[in-house]
Amino acid sequence: MSIPTGQEYMMPELGLGKIASYQRSQVDSAAVKKDINFGQAVQVIDDEASPLTTGDFYGVAVAKNYVDEYTDDKAGVYKPSEAVPVLRQGTITVIVDEDVKSGEKAVVNTATSNFLPSTTAKTTKTEVIGVFKSTTSSDGLAKLEINLP
What we know:
Pfam families: Phage_cement. This protein has strands spanning 26-32, 36-37, 41-45, 48-51, 59-61, 77-78, 83-95, 105-109, 114-117, 130-132, 141-147. By secondary structure, it is an all-beta fold.
């Protein structure tokens, strides 16, 4: 028997870097070169992953189911030499640096490796990489859908 009301069985926002949809997703992995926070945009150069700054958008870092230490900021991070799972297709929860609306095209802020609406005035941005699937204010969590080959 199918679940008639999916929202009754899952939280709308699962947390930073968590896969945010029951729809199909594809996750690859890469070795970490420089610290990568959960939900950050990732670039892969010479088979090594780092936060996106100057390279091409490879995907979004998927959160672990645990963190090494329980701190006040509860920030999850992948350290050098660890393997980072990188979402290439699907919907994931990310931090946005500006207000975004559902249906708006998304770009990466190369200064922070977080996400922005494509209409941003900032010059530190990439080409369009996906679409936001939720509306949220600056520094909030938004659902981002990407579909990379």
